[in-house]
């Protein structure tokens, strides 16, 4: 079951997304994003508040990963700009930074004092495993949304389009995973090798079949 929205935040009410609401939502994302903010951002923006579709989130994420700076900050800036202009972008960024900044300082002081305790080390080990699971879960949801979109749009006359696009997406995801996780290539290298050819291939598949 999804968590209830924050007070005053109507689900899917994009017309009333103000800078203040953006600040509240991204503050909540930042403060609950233990082990990595991105899975919590997906849950909040796509599943809970429904400000973005899964496909839109994937596009924002893809663009943010190849831009300078932290990925989640880039996502916040683009979403804030989309719904509330420059003030919205600044509000979303402030929500991500202010409360975690203060919390991290406090935790840093505590870790210097208690970080070598066995109980703390065990807790960090468990958190690492949970964080990896959250990231994997988000990746699977995004992949399923891409293939699900193809399945919904593929009618009797579009079976070849569905098969071609699905195969292309599966191949690109597999190659990206192999390049980053197995071969340890830098992100920029994987992006250069896969993004442009993948974009061109997707364009010609669409142009040929639609």
Short description:
By secondary structure, this protein is mainly α. The chain is built from seven helices and no strands. It has helices spanning 19-32, 38-48, 54-65, 71-114, 118-153, 159-182, 187-209.
Task: Summarize the structure in words.
With 210 residues, the protein is mainly α. It has 2 domains: 120 residues, no CATH class; 54 residues. 78% of the residues lie in helices and 0% in strands. The protein is built from 7 helices and no strands. Helix 1 crosses helix 4, helix 3 packs across helix 4 and helix 3 crosses helix 5. The protein starts with 18 loop residues before the first helix and ends with a helix. The N terminus is likely disordered.
The gross shape turns out to be: globular
Low-confidence stretches: 1-11, 154-161
Q: How big is the Rg? A: 20 Å
User: How many strands appear in the DSSP assignment?
Assistant: 0
Topology:
Blueprint (H helix, E strand, L loop, with lengths): L18 H14 L5 H11 L5 H12 L5 H44 L3 H36 L5 H24 L4 H23 L1
Primary descriptors:
7 helices; mainly alpha; 2 domains; globular
């Amino acid at each position: 079951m999804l968590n209830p929205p924050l007070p005053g935040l109507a689900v899917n009410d994009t017309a009333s997304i103000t800078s203040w609401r953006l600040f509240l939502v991204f503050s909540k994302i930042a403060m609950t994003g233990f082990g990595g903010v991105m899975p919590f951002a997906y849950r909040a923006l796509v599943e809970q508040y429904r400000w973005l579709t899964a496909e839109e989130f994937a596009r924002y994420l893809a663009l943010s990963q190849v831009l300078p700076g932290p990925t989640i900050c880039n996502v916040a800036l683009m979403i804030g700009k989309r719904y509330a202009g420059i003030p919205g972008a600044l509000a979303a960024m402030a929500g991500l930074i202010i409360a975690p900044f203060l919390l991290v300082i406090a935790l840093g002081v505590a870790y210097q004092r208690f970080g070598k305790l066995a109980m703390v080390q065990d807790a960090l080990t468990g958190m690492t495993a949970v964080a990896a699971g959250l990231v994997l879960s988000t990746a699977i949801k995004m992949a399923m949304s891409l293939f699900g979109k193809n399945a919904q749009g593929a009618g009797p006359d579009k079976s070849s389009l569905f098969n071609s696009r699905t195969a292309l997406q599966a191949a690109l995801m597999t190659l990206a995973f192999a390049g980053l996780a197995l071969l340890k290539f830098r992100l920029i290298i994987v992006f250069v090798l896969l993004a442009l050819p993948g974009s061109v291939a997707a364009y010609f598949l669409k142009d040929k079949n639609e």
